[in-house]
Structures are given as C-alpha cells and as structure tokens.
Design a protein that fits this description.
CATH topology: L-fuculose-1-phosphate Aldolase
CATH superfamily: Class II aldolase/adducin N-terminal domain
CATH architecture: 3-Layer(aba) Sandwich
Structural class: alpha+beta
CATH class: Alpha Beta
Strand content: 15-25%
Number of strands: 9
Number of domains: 1
Bound molecules: zinc ion
Shape: globular
Number of helices: 5
Length: about 220
C-alpha cells in the first residue's frame, strides 16, 4: 500500500469510528441505550466495519471502545454477541453503510406486543415518510418482528431469511426490524440515514402507543 493510500485508509477508519461514537452519544442522550445496551456499527469499506465492543457505555464511547471487524473473519475478542447480526447484514447487503441498535422504550414494548403478528404495520402517520422509499402517509410500512433469542447465530439466520423474502403485496418494508421485548435495529446507506430511520421508528412506535392509550 502506498503512503497516500495508507493515509486515505486511516481517514476512512477514523471517520467510521467517529460516526460510531457520535451515534452512541446521540442514542444515549435520548435514553435509548440504558445500562450499556445497544450496538452501533459503520461500514469502512467492502470488507470491514467499525463496531462497538461489548459492555461499553454508549454515551461515553472512546476510540478504544470501537473494534475494526473484518466481515469474513471470526468476531474479535471483546465483541458483543449481537455483532453477528450486524456482520450478516453488511455481508448480505453491500448498500448498507451503518446499522444502529437500541433498546428504546417504545421499540421494546411494541415489539413485545406484536410478536404474535410477526410485524408492526405503519399506516396513516406523516413521520413514516422519513423512511427510505416511503413518500406518503397512505403507504403501509412493514416492520418485521422476531422473537428474542440468546442464540445469535440462529437469530441472525432467521432475520436474514425473512429480510430476503419479498415484501407482502401493497407494503413497503422499513429499513429496520424489532426483537420482541428487546429493541430495534435500523440501518441506512449512511450514518445520517440510519440515525433518521432509528429516530423515526422509535417516534412512530411511541405515537402508536400513545394513540392506543388515548381515550377522548
Ligand atoms: Zn440488544
């Protein structure tokens, strides 16, 4: 590798690490990652991602809390068990540039409530237009829901299989999914897109919860 390419590579790595740290702070400030929960990752290039290590306080991340993980190698020591969910998605979808995972209160509750349905369907909400490919509140947006599982390899396989299935007719699939009683995964081509999707979905789930509990 030439000196110029090495510097460019260093820049890419540093940019990805900074984006991971920023995402962690952003989510922590909104109380979406209590007690060191959540995971944040950003793609560096076709073969590597920057991803939070296990057990770190996401509101106080430093560069030493972020691992540089090759997509085709075993998880590094200190990796979160859930890193496998990130790695599988980056491997399956080259367009994904960032994946953020939170234990936001509304995501966690609504996933639990809709496990039996296998999905949360969004319809009639203006904010759903913040999701990639959704241009109207009249669209029906499917957010898949999976049973939580401590066997992350099995869970990762179930998620990958479901996301590879065609979207049901007349629906648009959200750039995110729920683990029942656990939280939300959301992604995008860039960290900015992933952040917008995370914020929109958590807010939409909160709106649904409020709507259902409101009695005029
Ligand atoms: Zn989690």
């Amino acid at each position: 590798m030439t000196v110029a390419l090495a510097i460019l590579d260093d820049d890419r790595v540093e940019t990805a690490i900074e984006a991971v740290i920023d995402a962690g702070r952003y989510a922590s400030a909104r109380h979406w990652v209590p007690a060191t929960s959540g995971n944040f990752s950003v793609r560096i290039d076709a073969t590597r991602v920057a991803i939070t290590r296990s057990g770190a306080d996401k509101g106080a991340l430093t560069a030493s809390d972020v691992l540089i993980q090759a997509l085709d190698e075993r998880l590094l020591p200190g990796s979160s068990a859930e890193a496998a969910l990130h790695i599988r998605q980056y491997t399956d979808n080259p367009d994904i540039g960032a994946i953020f995972h939170i234990h936001g209160p509304s995501s966690t509750v609504i996933g639990h409530a809709h496990l039996v349905d296998g999905a949360v369907l969004l319809n009639g909400w203006e904010l759903q237009k913040a999701l990639l490919g959704v241009t109207t509140h009249e669209a029906t947006v499917e957010v898949p829901v999976f049973a939580n599982d401590q066997d992350i390899d099995a869970l990762s396989q179930r998620v990958a299989s479901r996301l590879a299935e065609p979207v049901p007719a007349q629906q648009i699939r959200a750039p995110g999914y729920l683990l029942a009683g656990h939280g939300l995964y959301a992604w995008g081509r860039t960290p900015r897109d992933a952040t917008r999707h995370l914020e929109a979905l958590e807010a939409l789930f909160n709106q649904i919860i409020v709507f259902r509990s409101y009695r005029p």
